[in-house]
Write a structure and sequence with these properties.
Shape: globular
Structural class: alpha/beta
Order of helices and strands: EEEHEEEHEEEHHEHEHEHEHEHEHEHE
Radius of gyration: 20 Å
CATH superfamily of the largest domain: Medium-chain alcohol dehydrogenases, catalytic domain
CATH architecture of the largest domain: Alpha-Beta Complex
Number of strands: 17
Distance between the termini: 24 Å
Number of helices: 11
């Protein structure tokens, strides 16, 4: 066992503070990563406040992890000491079910092991996340990070990036398509960047007119203020695909009406209250409504390689770990452009 230092929520709805714990020593197939930066996901806030239930406390959040390999197990083949590496939302899965064998570990039929607030495959050892100074992970769930990328701004790619990249790839977004992105937050700003990079005509939907300039800078060709009925009506039956990134309650029917016949819409946000679906929007134009969850390890690596090739990273605000509770309050007010990232070097400060 190796001593570790992190920030944890000792119980639900309590502020995070310094927490000392132990990591396992690297096994034959493990790597130990000294964490340089960790992104702050909105799901971290939900988890530490136990808003989704089943919280394991004390809880060390963080699943957008980047750093450098400092130790490798005897049988590790894909990493060496000194390599840049990342860890996303999963640290293990059953590896034998159909989803896992197809490289879709996020849909593991026996449940994947979350990077934090979960139990290891032994069913008793809690996992602790990236708000800490180091982490030990099986190399099969560790990602290669290109030195071409800004390391701090790469961290959110491990969740916000892959959460938007995966559905855009799955539904084959590309040139000649008109693609909508609903919301310009941590997820939405990455969706705009990716859809633009894939060659689509990107339209950003927002309730905030003040975000129009940013949306165009990120790659949107048009911006629609969704509260303006005339602006929405002008786009009826014109979209090939819409990616809805919003986690707040909102009317998805207004967006379904904008899809062409056979158009498709995917959800990646999870509102606290489920939306009411008006079936006629699907039936009368043979539209499809689906959802998507992060991405498998293979696809996440593909996404990181794509980002390195095209110079894509997240827009971030770097913070010291001591400001994490303040950052959570600011996230609730959407007061960040567009992702907080923790400088883990401040853990010992």
């Amino acid at each position: 066992m190796t001593a570790a230092l992190g920030y944890a929520a000792p119980a639900a709805k309590t502020p995070l503070g310094p927490f000392r714990f132990e990591r396992r020593a690297p096994g034959p197939h493990d790597v130990r990563i000294e964490i340089a930066y960790c992104g702050v996901c909105h799901s971290d806030l939900h988890q530490v406040r136990d808003e989704w239930g089943h919280g394991l406390f004390p809880m060390v959040p963080g699943h957008e992890i980047v750093g450098r390999v400092v130790e490798v197990g005897a049988h590790v083949q894909g990493f060496k000491v000194g390599d840049l590496a990342g860890v996303g939302c999963m640290v293990d899965a059953c590896r034998t079910c159909p989803a896992c064998t197809e490289g879709l570990e996020q849909y593991c039929e026996n449940g994947f092991t979350g990077t934090y607030n979960a139990l290891e495959r032994d069913g008793k050892t809690p996992t602790y996340g990236g708000y800490s100074n180091h982490i030990v992970v099986d190399e099969s769930f560790t990602l290669h990070i290109s030195p071409k990328l800004d390391l701090a701004a790469t961290a959110p790619l491990l969740c916000a990036g892959i959460t938007t990249y995966s559905p855009l790839r799955h539904w084959k977004v590309g040139p000649g398509q008109k693609v909508g992105v609903v919301g310009l937050g941590g997820l939405g700003h990455m969706a705009v960047k990716f859809a633009h990079a894939f060659g689509a005509h990107v339209v950003l939907f927002t309730t905030s007119p003040g975000k129009a300039e940013d949306a165009r800078r990120l790659g949107a060709r048009e911006v629609v203020v969704s509260k303006d009925k005339a602006q929405m009506k002008a786009h009826v039956k014109s979209f090939d695909f819409i990616l809805d990134t919003v986690s707040a309650p909102h009317d998805i029917n207004a967006y379904l009406a904008l899809l062409k016949r056979d158009g498709e819409m995917a959800l990646v946000g999870v509102p606290d209250t489920p939306p009411t679906l008006q079936f006629q929007h699907l039936i009368f134009s043979r539209r499809k409504l689906g959802g998507s969850l992060i991405g498998g390890i293979r696809e996440t690596q593909e996404m990181l390689d794509f980002c390195a090739e095209h110079g894509i990273v997240s827009d971030i605000e770097l913070i010291p770990i001591a400001k994490i509770n303040e950052a959570y309050e600011r996230m609730l007010k959407s007061d960040v452009k567009y992702r907080f990232v923790i400088d883990n070097a401040t853990l010992g400060a």
